[in-house]
Amino acid sequence: MNSYSISIRPFGIHAILVEWPGRVDVAILEDILQFTQYLKECCLKDEEWEIVPAYNSVTLIYRQEPIAFDQLKTKLLNWYKEDIKVVKRQKILWNLPVCYDEDFGIDLNEISQKSAMSINEIVSLHTSHVYTVFGIGFLPGFTYLGGLPEVLEFNRRSQPRSKVLRGSVGLAGKQTGIYPQDSPGGWNIIGNCSVPMFDPKAKEPCFVSVGDQVQFYKITRAEYDLHKIESEVGIYKLKKTVLDA
């Protein structure tokens, strides 16, 4: 660790925000995840600590009592300087199915016109890249995926929709992502993922973790409908590959 200059500031009386350089960078994310794992294994082992990594920061939350900021800041800076090896969390490559039919991909035609690419070319580009999970938030299970091809970078819609359907796959800036439930939203919608991204009844409500990777693959509407039925009865099997730690 100790690869970057970090800053630490209070985030209310029950939280601290630790920040790395302000850019989207896989190397920074890996450094954050390594430090997060070290904190969990060696420093903040109390189960009441909630540790939330994302993009270029990690938020430390302790709701039992107010945090003594100055004391913890000094400890965090010292811990970050430690050269201690930790067992990295196993990372997964998730292969997620998406139906790009125009009933779901309600912004595909507009994106096609703006990019001067055919819909098939857009789908091919979107499915050919492997994305990194840089953050989970906004909604429980909403995945912020970095690594979008530059030609698919489009600004959020100027007028957000009052309702975006659960499973909608969208583009915004340098990111793609999946809406885990019906929600207002301003991303450009190009398809729908047939796999539920968040299940509050499951042991792990969100199966994807920050640092994992995602690659989409195209399915037909019939396959989409079948996946939805399989998911509802609990027999759908996610496609995943275990990556080196």
What does this structure look like?
With 245 residues, the protein is an alpha+beta fold. The chain has two domains: 7-81, Gyrase A, domain 2 (2-Layer Sandwich); 92-242, Cyclophilin-like (Cyclophilin, Beta Barrel). It contains five helices and 14 strands. It has a seven-stranded mixed β-barrel with strand order 5-12-9-10-7-6-13. A four-stranded antiparallel beta sheet has the order 1-2-4-3, covered by helices on one side. Strand 3 and strand 4 form a beta hairpin. The longest helix is centred in the first third of the chain and has 18 residues, at 26-43. The radius of gyration is 20 Å and the shape is globular. The two termini are 16 Å apart. The relative contact order is 0.17. The mean pLDDT is 92. Its EC number is 3.5.2.9. It holds the Pfam family CT_C_D. Residues 6-208 form the Carboxyltransferase domain. GO terms for molecular function: 5-oxoprolinase (ATP-hydrolyzing) activity; ATP binding. It comes from Zobellia amurskyensis.
